[in-house]
Design a protein that fits this description.
By secondary structure, this protein is an alpha/beta fold. Helix 1 crosses helix 2 and helix 5 crosses helix 8. The chain has eight helices and seven strands. The structure holds zinc ion. Zinc ion binds next to helix 4.
Length: 197
């Protein structure tokens, strides 16, 4: 093609879930089939890059220092639901079954992929608990080996903090995560949470 087209395709291929053919198809769509839509997309990307950041309290996406959930005074700050990724939060919010706050770890422990405790958003979780006012931490992590390891690690960290630690009860096959659970399953997983620590 052209150097600019190839560069765009190369960048698109680095996005999750896009192989070479998908990247090429999107590049063609943007440049040839729908070029009128391109300026708005570029503008949206620039605006998001400039404004969107991590909430300083919970790690969720935010346009300000605090995300919309942390800034919402009707949410219960005494209950923190620890999740792996932002889409897990979206899944809980969509289920409408949770009115506490969240903490996004941005991953889970994985020695194979080289993800250690220092790579996760854990220090700010401990700081939130040390600041007081937290009654319960709900571990809503995947139901697989890495999720288990992360739950163990977190419960060790929380052992001396004087908070109740629970884990959601998955009605899912082993290996299932929050993201792929439907609203009813998430609601029952929350209601069926068990003491973990
Ligand atoms: Zn937040």
């Amino acid at each position: 093609m052209t150097p600019a087209f190839d560069e765009l395709t190369k960048r698109l291929r680095k996005l999750p879930g896009l192989g070479h053919r998908s990247a090429e198809r999107i590049a063609l769509h943007l440049l040839v089939e729908q070029p009128d839509a391109l300026p708005a997309l570029v503008e949206a990307l620039e605006a998001a890059a400039a404004r969107v950041r991590r909430c300083t309290r919970c790690g969720n996406l935010a346009d300000a220092e605090l995300c919309a959930i942390c800034a919402d005074t009707t949410r219960d700050p005494a209950v923190i639901c620890a999740i792996e990724h932002v889409p897990d939060l979206v899944a809980f919010e969509r289920s409408g079954s949770y009115r506490g706050s969240y903490h996004v770890l941005h991953g889970r422990l994985s020695p194979i992929r080289g993800v250690g405790p220092g790579d996760l958003n854990v220090a700010s979780l401990l700081a939130r608990i040390d600041a007081g006012g937290v009654r319960e931490v709900i571990l809503a992590l995947s139901n697989d080996v890495e999720g288990e390891a992360t739950c163990h690690f977190l419960s060790d960290q929380l052992a001396t903090k004087g908070v109740q630690v629970t884990r959601i009860g998955f009605g899912l096959p082993s290996g299932g995560g929050v993201l792929y659970a439907d609203a009813v399953t998430l609601k029952s997983a929350l209601e069926g949470r068990r003491t973990y620590l």
